[in-house]
C-alpha cells in the first residue's frame, strides 16, 4: 500500500492501511472504508494483534468455489454481456472485483448437475476398460465454454477436479448411488482420470489437482461411491499413481476429500509408503469434526499438503451467522491449520436452489443466486475477504489471537501484508494491529469482518 510520512522528522515512514469491511449489523457489504488508517506509535491499553512476517507457514494456492455443472448451466444461460460483467466481478482483481483464484470442478456429474452422467456411460452389460469411448460429453455444452471465459480473465486460476462416481459399469451395484469400485476396473478407472486430464488440456484447460473421490464415506448421495481408506490406498498405489507417472502428468493426487472427524482415513493412507509417494496431500470438508483436527494430519505427515475443498451454506442463508461461522472456521481456521485452499460449495444456483440431481442437495445456497439478476449471498462475502488480497503464492505468517478477535495474517507476493479479523465477541471491539514496532488502532462491531492491507 501507499506510504506516507508521519511523526516527527527522522521517524521511519509510516504505511497507510486499506480497510475492507463487512458488517451485517450495519448492512456494510465488503466495502473499502474511507477512514484513514496509518501506522504510528500511539500508546493505549487496547488488545493488540501482532504480525510477525519472519515466522512463516504454508503457501496459499487460492480461495474460491466449486464451479458445479449447475453453476455453469445458469451462467451460460445469461446474456453474454451480463455473464462477462459477472465473471469479471468474480475473477478479476481490479476495482471491486473479488479475485477468485481457485475453482473445484466435478469429474462427471456432481449432485448439483442437472442430471447424472459420467464420461463413459454404456448400455447395460457393456464395459470399456481401454476408455475408447471416453468423451467429455455434457461438459462441452456449458462448463467448458464458461471455463474458457474465466481463463481469459484469469489464465493463472488453479483448477481441481473431483469425481462423485465412476461410470456405473465399474461399480459393484451398477448404480450412480453408492456401491464400490470393482478391483478389476482399477486400471480402467485410472485411465479415466488420465483421459480427463488430457482431454481438458486439449481444450486449453489445465487441471492442477484431482481428488480421488468426493466424500468417500458418504455413499448415499446421487452420484456417490463408497471407497474406504484401504481401497483408496490400493487404487492409488496399484493403478492411479503408476498411470499418472506413465502419462507424464504433473497433476497433483489429493486423497480423502471428506470431513475432519475421520483424520484416520488420510493418515492411514499416508502411512503406506507405496501410496504416499504418489500423493501431494489431503482434502477436507467440515460437516463433521473440528477444524483443528487438521493440525494432527499435518503433524503426522508434515511433508504433505492440506486443502479445504467444500462447505455449503444452507438456504435461505443468514449473513450474520454464516459469515461468522465460515470466517472463523474456514478463512481463519482452515488456513491456521495448514490448508492451502479454502473453497465454498457452490458458485451459483437459482432461486429454488436448482439445478440438482434427483436425490442431490435441495438446500445448497450458491455464493450467487442467478434469477434474471444476480444476488450475492454469504459465501460470496466470506471468500471475497480473502481472495481479493491473499493472492496465490501468499504465505501465512504469525499473528496472535487476543480474546474474541479471531484472525489470520499473510504476506502476499507483491509484499502486501494482509490481516483478516473477525470480532466474535458480544460487543464492539477497539484493538491495535502491530507490525515492525508500529501500531494502528481500529475497531470492529460485533460479528463484523475486516481485511486490513498494507
From TrEMBL:
Keyword terms, alphabetized: Glycosidase, Hydrolase, Signal
Domain Glycosyl hydrolase family 30 TIM-barrel: 60-390
Span of domain Glycosyl hydrolase family 30 beta sandwich: 393-452
Pfam families the record matches: Glyco_hydro_30, Glyco_hydro_30C
Superkingdom of origin organism: Bacteria
Gene3D superfamilies: Glycosidases, Golgi alpha-mannosidase II
Family: Belongs to the glycosyl hydrolase 30 family.
Protein name, UniProt field: Glucosylceramidase
Species: Pontibacter populi
